């Protein structure tokens, strides 16, 4: 059980259920190839069956960590910090992003958009899921829409989601890793017919880095 004092800090974002943090190369989407410090926060109820970090789903498995400590660790490395999960917007991210930006660090988030947007962001990657759709408020804020393609119907879902984002939002289709051999050729064909989309690959997996 978490005591009341710690729970209050969690509610304020002064503590977060940290699963892991690491310095690596961004492997997906618009910022592929850039060095970034990743902060993975535990907790997610979106429930993607193909999720490759299901151990992040149960926030209780990841002890509340002092956010100031997380920020101190981040500032030792890259000038870009990516907050991911799990579903990071289950938690208040105003405190951590204010601290990071005060150090002139760029703040990026990867989210399903299923929870209210908090935090100050230089880049918002919206990756919507059918199991729990984004809230309407995030569509106009997203800089990047990244839709995971694991079957043919996902192309229709992708276009439905693209119709909701702002006109400057970058659009990406990414093959679900376990079906990449089957779906990648279909994505290539789709993008060639619909050039407003781009292809995102999980290049970090091809490079065998975290």
Automatic annotation (TrEMBL):
Enzyme class: lyase
Record: residues binding [4Fe-4S] cluster: 44, 48, 51
Residues annotated to bind substrate: 25-27, 40, 84, 210
Cofactor(s) this protein requires: Mg(2+); [4Fe-4S] cluster; S-adenosyl-L-methionine
Record's catalysed reaction(s): 6-carboxy-5,6,7,8-tetrahydropterin + H(+) = 7-carboxy-7-carbaguanine + NH4(+)
GO biological process: tRNA queuosine(34) biosynthetic process
Matching InterPro entries: 7-CO-7-deazaguanine_synth-like, Aldolase_TIM, rSAM, rSAM_sf
Keyword Cell division set for record: no
Cofactor remark from the record: Binds 1 [4Fe-4S] cluster. The cluster is coordinated with 3 cysteines and an exchangeable S-adenosyl-L-methionine.
Limits of the Radical SAM core domain: 31-210
Pfam family, one: Radical_SAM
Subunit structure and binding partners: Homodimer.
Function of the molecule: Catalyzes the complex heterocyclic radical-mediated conversion of 6-carboxy-5,6,7,8-tetrahydropterin (CPH4) to 7-carboxy-7-deazaguanine (CDG), a step common to the biosynthetic pathways of all 7-deazapurine-containing compounds.
Family: Belongs to the radical SAM superfamily. 7-carboxy-7-deazaguanine synthase family.
Protein name: 7-carboxy-7-deazaguanine synthase
Species whose genome carries this gene: Gramella jeungdoensis
């Amino acid at each position: 059980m978490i005591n009341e004092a710690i729970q209050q800090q969690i509610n304020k974002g002064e503590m977060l259920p940290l699963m892991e943090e690491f310095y690596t190369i961004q492997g997906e989407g618009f910022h592929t190839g850039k060095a970034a410090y990743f902060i993975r926060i535990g907790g997610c109820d979106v429930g993607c069956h193909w999720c490759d970090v299901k151990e992040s789903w149960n926030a209780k498995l990841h002890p509340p960590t002092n956010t100031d400590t997380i920020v101190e660790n981040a500032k030792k490395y890259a000038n870009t910090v990516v907050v991911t999960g799990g579903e990071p917007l289950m938690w208040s991210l105003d405190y951590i992003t204010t601290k990071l930006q005060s150090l002139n660090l760029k703040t990026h988030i990867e989210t399903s958009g299923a929870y209210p947007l908090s935090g100050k962001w230089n880049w918002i990657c919206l990756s919507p899921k059918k199991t729990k759709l984004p809230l309407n408020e995030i569509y106009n804020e997203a800089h990047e829409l990244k839709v995971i393609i694991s079957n043919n119907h996902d192309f229709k879902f992708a276009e439905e989601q693209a119709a909701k984002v702002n006109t400057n939002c970058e659009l990406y289709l990414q093959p679900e890793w376990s079906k990449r051999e089957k779906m990648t050729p279909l994505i290539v064909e789709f993008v060639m017919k619909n050039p407003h989309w781009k292809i995102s690959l999980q290049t970090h997996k091809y490079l065998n880095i975290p």
